[in-house]
Each structure stands twice: as structure tokens, then as C-alpha cells.
Write a structure and sequence with these properties.
Oligomer: single chain
Distance between the termini: 12 Å
Strand order of the largest sheet: 3-2-1-4-5-6
Radius of gyration: 18 Å
Shape: elongated
Bound molecules: magnesium ion
Length: about 240
């Protein structure tokens, strides 16, 4: 079993690690891309190939919104104009599609609420009781809203999310920069920090940053892929990391 008590900091991803919002993100990406792909297929007289689980895990999950749009479109051999962050959600641009996805995910989260995994909550309390520092490191610009909705803002010493990354000009996962910035803000070297991630791009960021331990959280049966992308240890629930 992986032991965390020798480390000085644990850096947690949010969606899919602390909260069950990864499912809601997938649903929003799928609705947005399927509408777009269906429209393109009809326009070009080509078959409609929907956005699937594999597309999500390989090209979108864990990444900043617009990077996800670009990467998935490139995978399908499609390119769109960039546009800008203020593009309306119906604009046929990278930013327009990203904004549409954001609108959808906010609707879904408002409707469903935010669920915190019990095992994650227990681990957060335990590591903090042990004097280990905690950070939340998320690509999401909605991170703060989700933390507040879940009532868990106080369980993190530092937050590096999509808003902070944009302010600092940090590249998103799989680049390690957001995790490195969190460790630095906590005053802990990467070798003494643990990264906890459920996305392939996220464990890759952990490996790229030279962190002491990278833990992959396997919520959807992709344990082997998590290991291939850089997880030292794979768990299905963070309760497995609790020390007795
Ligand atoms: Mg995640």
C-alpha cells in the first residue's frame, strides 16, 4: 500500500478525484461535440461518428477547456478558427465550442449538485491532521465555485486552478507547471510532494514534474493506461490510502 505519511504535501486534482464532477464534464463535452459533429457530418454528407469515452480520456480529460477542443478536433483532422474568450457559445470557433461546453457543464452541475467522494474527504482530513499540507490543482476555471458548493474550500492550503494558471501564464496539464506552482506556494519541493490524479494528462503532468509519488485514481477501468502515463500506484478510491 502507498504510504503518504513520509511526504510533506499532497496535491489533489479536483474533478474525478475529490468530486464526482468528472462524469458531468464528460456529459457536457459529449453533448457539445456530438451536436457539432452531427452538424458537420450532415453538411458534408459524411457519416456521424460520435464523441466517445476513449476520446474523452485520451484527448480532453484534465486539460484546460480550449486545449481539449483543439486536441480532439485535431484528432478528427478538423481545424477551426481560434476566435476569442468572449465568443458566444454558438460560434464555430475553438473558443465558441469551449464556451458552449462550459455553459452545459454549469447547467448540469446546477441541476445535479456536487458530490464529494467519502474516501477523498476522509483522506483529506487524515493527511491534514498529520500535518501534511494540501493543495487543489485543477485545470477548471470553475474550481472555486465547485469547492464552495461542496463546502470543502477550507481543506486546501493552496489552490492553483484555471483562473490562477491564466493569470500566471502557466501551460495546462500534461505540462507539470500547475502542480509545480502549487508545491512552490506550499514551500515543499516536488520530491516531497504527492500528486493524486484521475486523468491520463494529469498523471503525465505528475511524472513530468518529478514528484515523489504519483497516484492514479481509477474510476472508470483505466488502471493500466494510468500506469502507462506515469502513475506509480493506482487505487480505485482514496480510502485505500488511509493509514490505520
Ligand atoms: Mg480529473
Amino acid at each position: 500500500m502507498a504510504r503518504l505519511d513520509g511526504y510533506a504535501a499532497v496535491l489533489f486534482d479536483l474533478d474525478g478525484v475529490i468530486t464526482s464532477t468528472a462524469r458531468q464534464h464528460f456529459a457536457a463535452w459529449k453533448e457539445m461535440f456530438d451536436d457539432f459533429l452531427d452538424m458537420c457530418a450532415e453538411r458534408n454528407g459524411e457519416p456521424f461518428i460520435p464523441f466517445g469515452d476513449d476520446d474523452y480520456h485520451r484527448h480532453v480529460d484534465g486539460m484546460p477547456r480550449y486545449d481539449g477542443v483543439r486536441r480532439f478536433l485535431a484528432e478528427r483532422g478538423m481545424t477551426l478558427e481560434e476566435g476569442g474568450p468572449d465568443d458566444p457559445p454558438d460560434a464555430e470557433t475553438v473558443h465558441g465550442l469551449g464556451n458552449r461546453k462550459n455553459e452545459l457543464v454549469n447547467d448540469i452541475i446546477r441541476r445535479d449538485g456536487v458530490e464529494v467522494y467519502d474516501g477523498s474527504l476522509a483522506l483529506l482530513h487524515q493527511v491534514r491532521d498529520q500535518g501534511i499540507k494540501t493543495a487543489v490543482v485543477s485545470s477548471s476555471r470553475n474550481c472555486q465555485t465547485i469547492l464552495r458548493a461542496a463546502g470543502i474550500t477550507d481543506l486546501f492550503d493552496v489552490r492553483v486552478d484555471g483562473v490562477v494558471a491564466a493569470e500566471l501564464g502557466l501551460p495546462g496539464k500534461p505540462a507539470p507547471d500547475t502542480f509545480l506552482a502549487a508545491a512552490e506556494r506550499l514551500g515543499v519541493p516536488p520530491q516531497r510532494s504527492v500528486v493524486v490524479e484521475d486523468a491520463l494528462s494529469g498523471v503525465e503532468a505528475g511524472r513530468n514534474g518529478g514528484f515523489g509519488l504519483v497516484i492514479g485514481v481509477n474510476r472508470v477501468g483505466q488502471g493500466e493506461a494510468l500506469r502507462d502515463h506515469g502513475a506509480d500506484v493506482v487505487v480505485t478510491d482514496l480510502a485505500e490510502l488511509l493509514s490505520s
